[in-house]
Amino acid sequence: MSWFTGTGREFVRRTRAMAGKGDLAVHRLGPPAIRIHGDRALAELPLVIEWRIDVDGVEADLASACRSKYRARRDPDGAWRIAGLAAAGLVIAPIALYRKGCSM
Asked: Which of 67, 74, 81, 91 has its C-alpha lying 20 to 30 A from 102's C-alpha?
């Protein structure tokens, strides 16, 4: 992920803290592509995250496009487990600007 490094438990705690402050984002997920090689697999998931920020009184909608890459491995009991997660190709771009107090 572009904003976080740590454990799953810490990710949940920090995500809840952001949501409690009103920092919300829309996540749009594409279809995953999965490649399996023996007991290892790579799943790639295209996604776009959209959120609104305030920059000196101007609201801006931003979009972050990237591809999440999940590495997985099959345990001896046959269960697949996520072994790692990384984001690739991160791009952040403004998609709309709004002057506060103005109707659009």
From this structure: 91
List C-alpha distances in Å: 43 to 20, 31, 60. Answer: 31, 10, 32
Maximum distance among all alpha carbons in the chain? Answer: 61
Query: What domains appear along the chain, each with residue ranges and CATH number?
Result: 25-99 (3.15.10.10)
Q: Which DSSP state fits 76?
A: T
Q: What is the model's pTM? A: 0.64
pLDDT less than 70: residues of the chain: 1-2, 90, 92, 94-104
